[in-house]
């Protein structure tokens, strides 16, 4: 049994050493990967940095121009809506006045018709 325990202890020690080396190697690999990533970022910046900044600047300018145009359209739409609202109010007033005038004309026509009928009746009674 002792031989088995010794063998297990040796295997455990070897496994621990392998894990420790893997962890240290993993740390080194991570550091190397980070350094490579930084290098790639630097190369990318050298190759494409100016173009990226120029594109970003163009996008910023386009956004500003678009915002101005949207504001201008919003103001124009507000003006058009106000104009249409005023026109509708004017039409409503004109329509109401015409309706009142038509009612007045109908009332006058009824009065004239009543007077004409009375005159007819008076003419018949005189005969």
Strand content: under 5%
Contiguous uncertain segments of 5+ residues: 1-10
> Over the alpha carbons, how many angstroms does the gyration radius reach?
49 Å
* Overall body shape: rod-shaped
Tally the helices: what do you get? 1
Number of strands: 0
Structural class: mainly alpha
Order of helices and strands: H
Kindly report how far apart the N and C termini lie.
Answer: 156 Å
Helix coverage percent: over 70%
Output mean pLDDT: 82
* Main sheet record: none
Write a structural description.
The protein is an all-alpha fold. The chain is about 100% helix and about 0% strand. The protein contains one helix and no strands. The longest helix has about 120 residues.
Keywords:
single chain; 1 helix; 98% helix; 0% strand
Q: Could you give the topology of this structure?
A:
Elements: H1 2-126
Quickly describe the structure.
This protein is mainly α.
């Amino acid at each position: 049994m002792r031989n088995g325990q010794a063998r297990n202890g040796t295997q455990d020690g070897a496994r621990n050493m392998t894990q420790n080396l893997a962890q240290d190697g993993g740390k080194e690999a991570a550091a190397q990967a980070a350094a490579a990533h930084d290098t790639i970022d630097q190369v990318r910046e050298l190759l494409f940095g100016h173009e990226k900044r120029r594109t970003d600047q163009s996008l910023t300018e386009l956004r500003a121009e678009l915002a101005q145009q949207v504001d201008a359209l919003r103001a124009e739409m507000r003006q058009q809506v106000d104009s249409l609202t005023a026109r509708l109010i004017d039409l409503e007033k004109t329509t109401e006045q015409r309706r009142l005038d038509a009612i007045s004309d109908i009332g006058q026509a009824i009065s004239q018709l009543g007077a004409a009928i009375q005159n007819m009746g008076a003419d018949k009674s005189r005969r």
